[in-house]
Request: fold
Amino acid sequence: MSETFKAILVSRDDDKKQSVAVAELTEADLMEGDVTITVEATTVNYKDGLAITGKAPVVRRWPLIPGIDFAGTVLSSSHPDWNTGDHVILNGWGVGETHYGAYAARARVNGDWLVPLPGKMSAHDAMAVGTAGYTAMLCVMALESHGITPERGPVVVTGAAGGVGSVAISILSKLGYHVIASTGRSAEAEYLTGLGAAEIISREELSAPGKPLGKERWAGGVDAVGSMTLANVLSMTSYGGAVAACGLAGGMDLPATVAPFILRGVSLLGVDSVMAPKALRLEAWKRIGSDLDLGKLKALSTTIGFDGIIDAAHDIVEGKVRGRLVVDMQ
Ligand code: NDP
Reply:
């Protein structure tokens, strides 16, 4: 009989009521793919929280093993790029949404979706970064491509104490930017300055309805919140600046005007990690290897076990998680 392993499975009944349970599966139960991986570490991202709680329609195949990212070792491969024993990372590509995801001891995926684990990182380190951190890097790269340098002025980071925010602050400060962190959790001020934030502002300062054009306060922004917060970040961006938008923790809407775009030449840069092309992913992970302080990574991450995933999923959608959560699967 084949060996069984534990997996988290979200299911839906005939009335479309969602439930979540731990199931015993075998490799034969996994979906198609040309690489099978032993999952060593994974994470709980905001999107995983939405998938497990059912708070937003992330899951698009039933039943499904959630978990949008993992790091592990190749167990078997018929893909030309990968051999048994290779250390790999997966982020996105619909894994944990339409394809069985990370919350199981084994995963089987398309080898084109994998990237190599950067040299000096462990599986645990890579998942302390996770999709949230890799997205933060994509945001920083988007700002750089737009010519936003530390000399141009401060960069604001919203949802600062969350996963994207914490990693964005760490990277931006290492690159020499003056980082303004916006948080709803004033108790996390010391944590945020420890990561490299030069100034802390309250979430309320950006979430209340503001003017179409405000005082110019920053040259750039990394926004994980959306809604009124993003509108206000745009309205306070200085002439020719840019804001990288990647998240919707505060809402999906964008109650903004065109004033910052047409009167200040401000740019709104959309950032997607899920379908990002491989070349961009490789560049982002290479940059994470060089521009993220591993000491700070330890400070911003908390480790839990497989049994803690479901509770953590609820906590993250309630905004209770600080920094990044790493799930040790070993
Ligand atoms: P976290 O839950 O770790 O962080 C989100 C942070 O946003 C919270 O910590 C909190 O920060 C702030 N926040 C929460 N609720 C609200 C609210 N109602 N109003 C204003 N701020 C709020 O999530 P992640 O960092 O993992 O993800 C952040 C966002 O980015 C999510 O929307 C996620 O879906 C998105 N994302 C998008 C990706 C992409 O490819 N585009 C990839 C990865 C993530 P604080 O307490 O400091 O105020």
